[in-house]
Write a structure and sequence with these properties.
By secondary structure, the protein is of the alpha+beta class. It is 45% helix and 22% strand. It has helices at 2-43, 59-80, 91-105, 108-113, 118-125, 185-191, 200-206, 227-244, 246-252, 255-261, 265-279, 332-339, 343-359, 363-368, 372-378, 382-392; strands spanning 132-143, 147-157, 164-174, 179-183, 284-290, 296-303, 308-314, 320-323, 397-407, 410-419, 431-439, 445-449. The protein is elongated and about 130 Å long.
Length: 453
């Protein structure tokens, strides 16, 4: 009996030891698995853990990237379009020189991965059509070794034929030696970056962040950009976006302005898409700057086509909104000038506003400042008024006011209307009108003019 009890005790002890060993093994296995999982997820973060790229860039960064992109497109366009100032240069030599420049700009990893060489470049771009690029979105990341990476989404365009095509690219900036390299669209596709915006981890794991070699043609500079250059860049950027990305252009219009000026989004997008590119100029001839707001600067501008507009720009970032005229919502500078003017000057200012409406093809606003009886007798609708203007007047007009008279709070002024940019000579058609302007409260007015020439 004692022997049996002893055997049972030994068996129980052995069983307990086995259970303990199994538990220890399970614990060790779980710890090992947890460590392996942690290592895996550290190297392969989940989507929610991935650090997104920054969607806001500084003004200085924008100009560096813009310059790199433009140099890239100038180079590839020149391979298929001979533009030689020195006629002694042989055409084949000219093409090879530009192909070598492109090789020096393109990312070395991309060149190796896609097996790109000079001959392949010449063949690829011999019929290349696009000479310019519209930036729609830029995403940036600061990586180790003093590298900056910019993923750019937009369209390559032909300014001569208005042809466009979606095309994206990546620019790497080596801020240590001020050099850059570019991964073109086909490289992005191969890397899987052609649809979704990559995370910082995606970028970090895709590039060798060793110093970019200085090859002379791949150097960028930090440039201080003056206000006039910034505003002209924004104006041309907005014109291109209106033409090729009408939805995005509507979002760039100041919210208060667009809500008051356009009946709805569809009307606004259609107007911007059909008119802005041709109406606005490309240079600023006059500009006033208001820095009273701590977050953004207002630029009240006059372009080389005679259009007044306002840009509100973030002081640090390349973010802006635009107001397309100075009559839809009150502008303090304009209001102050108007309130300090006499009746003759106010009448001339109001006729100038009417001219701006006509040149902006803003026929609805122009129609609404016409005296009600006058417009009912002559133009039954905005469409009738628009038809009259298009048939009788130049597409874009200049005006010259003179001979102001005032009777019973109603002012009259002689107005000469001519095609914008022409002088009033016998060779250019000049339309003479008498405008009747009644000044109202709150800086409002109504007007009429002799319809028959």
């Amino acid at each position: 009996m004692n022997n049996l009890n002893k055997k049972i005790k030994i068996s129980i002890i052995i069983l307990i030891l086995l259970i303990i060993m199994v538990c220890v093994l399970i614990i060790i296995n779980n710890i090992t698995k947890k460590e392996e999982e942690n290592e895996f997820f550290n190297n392969h973060p989940t989507i929610s853990e991935r650090k997104p790229m920054n969607s806001e860039i500084t003004t200085n960064e924008y100009y560096i990237v813009k310059e790199c992109v433009q140099k890239y497109y100038n180079t590839i366009y020149s391979i298929g379009h001979e533009v030689i100032h020195n006629t002694s240069i042989d055409k084949s030599v000219y093409i090879e020189n530009n192909a070598n420049v492109l090789l020096n700009i393109l990312n070395e990893g991309y060149l190796d991965e896609c097996e790109v060489n000079k001959e392949k470049i010449i063949e690829e771009y011999k019929n290349f059509e696009y000479n310019n690029y519209i930036i729609k979105d830029i995403y940036s990341a600061e990586l180790e070794n003093n590298f900056g990476v910019f993923v750019i989404y937009g369209k390559q365009i032909n300014d001569f034929t208005n042809k466009s095509e979606e095309s994206n690219l990546i620019i790497l900036l080596d801020n240590t030696n001020n050099t850059y390299s570019i991964v073109p669209y086909e490289g992005m596709i191969k890397m899987g970056f052609n649809t979704d915006v990559p995370s910082e981890d995606d970028i970090y794991n895709s590039f060798n962040l060793s110093r970019i070699k200085n090859k002379q043609q791949n150097i960028f500079e930090f440039v201080e950009v003056d206000n006039k250059t910034i505003v002209e860049e924004i104006l041309n950027d907005f014109k291109h976006i209106s033409k090729y990305y009408k939805s995005e252009s509507y979002d760039l219009v100041d919210e208060e302005y667009r809500n008051k000026h356009f009946a709805n989004r569809e009307v606004g997008e259609k107007y911007l898409n059909e008119n802005i590119y041709d109406i606005f100029g490309d240079k600023i001839t006059k500009m006033a700057i208001d820095e009273s707001d701590p977050y953004y600067t207002r630029y009240i501008c006059l372009d080389n086509n005679g259009n007044y507009f306002i840009i509100k720009k973030d002081d640090q970032l390349m973010k802006y909104s635009i107001i397309l005229d100075i009559y839809t919502i009150p502008v303090k500078e304009v209001t102050e000038k108007y309130n300090n003017s006499n009746n003759a000057q106010k009448t001339a200012i109001n006729i100038e506003k009417f001219k701006q409406m006509i040149n902006l093809k803003d026929y609805n606003s122009a129609y609404n400042v016409l005296d009600e009886t006058f417009r009912n007798n002559n133009f039954k609708s905005v469409e009738n008024f628009e038809k009259y203007v298009k048939q009788k007047w130049p597409e874009f007009i200049d005006i010259k006011c003179s001979d102001y008279k005032e009777v019973n709070d109603v002012g009259t002024m002689k107005v000469k209307i001519s095609a914008r940019g022409t002088s009033n000579t016998e060779n250019n058609k000049v339309i003479e009108k008498t405008f009747i302007v009644k000044l109202l409260d709150d800086n409002n007015f109504v007007m009429s003019f002799n319809v028959n020439e």
